[in-house]
Design a protein that fits this description.
Blueprint: H1 10-24, H2 26-40, H3 55-63, H4 67-76, H5 90-107, H6 117-121, H7 126-142, H8 164-171
Helix pairs in contact: 2-7, 4-5
Length: 205
Amino acid sequence: MSKRMRGYGLSAEIDRKRREQYDNEIEREQEARRWVEDVVGCELVKDADPNTPLHWDGLHQGLKSGVALCKLINVLSPGSVKKINGALSNYHMMENIANYLKAIEKYGVSKEDQFNTPDLFESVNMLAVVNSIHSLGRAAQKNGFSGPTLGPKEADYNPRNFDEEVMNKGQTVIGLQAGSNKGASQSGMSFGRSRNINEPYVGSS
């Protein structure tokens, strides 16, 4: 369990909202947890019921050391983490997490889809950890990993290249949002024109 002291005031409110949001997305935790366990081949929390969510504190307990995460990326991309620390002092655990984050970035998970070391080690934001594992799952499919899958495959970048002729044609097209004067005329329009004194007055019926 985390030894991190509970905050007060604003920090406590932020922590409460994060945990509430986490509970609202508990299915994502279960999907991420099962994928990690299937790929690595071991339980995150010994003797935990695989059909019961670990919840925030349970997942923190299972991932805090960084060992399971390092093993995970080493299955997806062998040799990504050269050394996994087994002597689990705080320093070694944080080093494991940092090495994992570096490895998944090389594997294709963007910085925006990662978590920060304190999010996991200090149990600051476990939902960010879950979301990052989902991002890794998408990257694994994109990179052709043949093992267990997590979530939909990440879309490939597909730039569209048009030749100069097509681009020039596009510049001559008037978009519908610009309006159209097709079929328009000034017939019957009197706005802005003074009425002739000899014109008969037509009143409303």
